[in-house]
Amino acid sequence: MSTNQNNITSTTPPARAGQGRVVILGAGESGVGAAKLAQQKGFDVFVSDFGIIADQYKLALEKLNIPFESEKHTEELILNATQVIKSPGIPATAPIVKKLVAQGTPVISEIEFAARYTDAKMICITGSNGKSTTSLLTYHILKNAGLNVSLAGNIGHSFAAQVAAESYDYYVLEISSFMLDDMFDFKADIAVLLNITPDHLDRYDYKLENYAASKMRIIQNQKADDVFIYCADDEESLKALANISPLAKTFPFSITKNIDTGAYLEENTIHILTEPNKELTMSISDLALQGKHNIYNSMASGIVAKVLELRNDTIRESMGNFKNIEHRLEHVAKISGIDFINDSKATNVNSTWYALESMTSDVVLIMGGVDKGNDYNMLKDLVKSKVKAIVCLGKDNKRIHDAFEDDVEVIVNTFSAEEAAQIAFHLAKRGDAVLLSPACASFDLFKNYEDRGNQFKAAVREL
User: Fold this and answer.
1) Are both 436 and 379 inside the same structural domain?
2) Does residue 131 have a known ligand-binding role?
3) What biological function has been recorded for the protein in this entry (predicted)?
4) Is 30 annotated as a binding residue?
5) DSSP secondary structure letters along 165-214
């Protein structure tokens, strides 16, 4: 066990250098991308997926003549690997992973592997909430400024596949805690930590401090000329930082207090200052992204842009004309004076809190799905003040009923997006909003949150 300069603990042996046998566990976007890059670099490559491999990825592997297996892990084809690249979705507790670790085989992420083969600057964004929006906004600003930049990680196309095929100067990488768990030598040139709130605790022994420690790996290996951007208002981030001394230059951001070097909100104006006499100011009314949580996201992206010495006019223009991602507070339609909003990407309680906080009308809330040990208490005040009815969308809705039965008059169970949209429409009146913001994962009734959001949008358009 070794501890790096930031007091972040690393618990796996470093990967061995040189060609050898690379086994990839998981044949999704990241796995197939890693297979392409590994093959290009001269490794003997094998891909194994315990689930069913999607047709598009099967075809990609067949085209490259990369051997693979589906719906099983054959130990004699895996345990002889020089190194293993693991999909973020596979937990460390999976039997095959435990056997690999026990015998000393390095198990790493696609990000860790691909970073070895590029000299591009890494802008890495993590957090329980807002990382997709902030990653896309940061990418939008950098691209508009004319930088040779791409987007990867937990969003967009595989980082490894892009490293194999393209040559970029900058990557904006959305990084999940699952990815961070399998990153050891990787270094972020610019690291952004938006917030830490309870999420995926089932992967962290239901301990928030374990999850927080995973998030703090975003700054491992950083040096004095690197940059760390974090939210000075986020209690859990500050707790996690209390025992760590980042070597990088730090730039906090806050909406509650003035910051000397970083970003802060004063009245309705954002101030971003990374160097003396080089301040950017912007009215929050000019931001494309509205709501308190999006002020934080815009501040983080703005600090990245200022650190890279982009022009203030370019930053303001980009933060003013950005269009948010699909399934994140996406306006679907206005029917009979009722706004329908798709926030299917809200797969945890904190994301739903942010969505409700941004609502300015009465809400019929559609929520539910696979509960990851959610604590709904943080939603109770917002539900009392803004939500007139809850439409549950999931196989097991008991915990939602238990949490909110005293706070709203109507809680209804539904088992399809079509049924949920129809009932919500009948419960709402002109001037209300119907908000799909589930606070839960989608896998009980849908393939993923995109499928849930797309089915909801299709159902709304049929009303």
Assistant:
1) yes
2) yes
3) Cell wall formation. Catalyzes the addition of glutamate to the nucleotide precursor UDP-N-acetylmuramoyl-L-alanine (UMA).
4) no
5) H---SEEEEE--HHHHHT-SS---SEEEE----S-SGGGTTT-HHHHHHH
